[in-house]
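hiii, so i know i said id send this last week but things got crazy w the move. better late than never?? heres the sequnce for the chain we talked about at the cafe, plus the structure i predicted for it. fair warning i was half asleep when i ran it
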Amino acid sequence: MENEIKRKALIRALRLALLACLLSWGIFFGVESINSDLTRQNDLATQLLASYFGNLLAMLGPALAALLLWRFIDKQSPPAFKWSRLRYYLAIAAGMLALRALTISIGNSIEPYDTGLRSPIESYIWIIVGSSLTLGWVGGLGEELGWTAYLLSALTPAFGKTRAVIASGIIRGIWHLPVLAWPLILEARQGKIALNEFAVALLTLIVFLALSNIFFSAMMGWLWFRTESIALTGWAHQWFDAARDFAPLLIIGVAGSATTALAWSILIHLIQLLALVWLARQERTNLKSISPT
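okay and structure toks below
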């Protein structure tokens, strides 16, 4: 019986992964093909706008996949759309921005730069920033409806919270593969790297994406298990992306330095690791409380 429950959960996870990749990867590769032409034309502004809005559209793939599966395969309704509390939204936005400010300060203290706001700020940057603060939530909902609300709900009863989060992170990471693999694909097609070098680089990229997204899924999973609010997890995803991406666009100097990027990576992954540890400890405590004495 237990094996059958696990088998059905894995089938649901595999269906979501395949359908989400089918829906999103065409957009990813299509946008990158357009950007290859724009690169040759040296049109940076249009290239950045195409990348942003193309990726935003592709982020809806997991949500659309989940909704189709709920409706036509699982024959069940999606989880109730809970808003949770306003103070959580404010705390998440403020916390992400404060963390980004801290990493910029750390970067500047270690490797001082002439730092200031970009001037002038081109119109395409304002479009990206404005869209991130509005449509970015829709993109966050698109991912989290699939990878959190659907996938964690499917896997947790069979495998527990910790293993469900890890599996979700691996699938989420592989789904992101086209975004980072496209430059490698272009180099391989142009004969700039050998096939064995391409294979090693691609495998390394898959491992990196899987690990980083396991940590990210732990943070989203922690929020989901505590609130069951898809609106809040989508909001958290939006402000994670905004805090990570805004600074290099708006601030010259230290915001784009390798030291600042490393500080951000260390601190955000530490927070995500704590979320994963919390989930594992809570699960272990719950198992002990229900085990026979």
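btw The longest helix spans residues 2-40. thought thatd interest u
miss u guys!!
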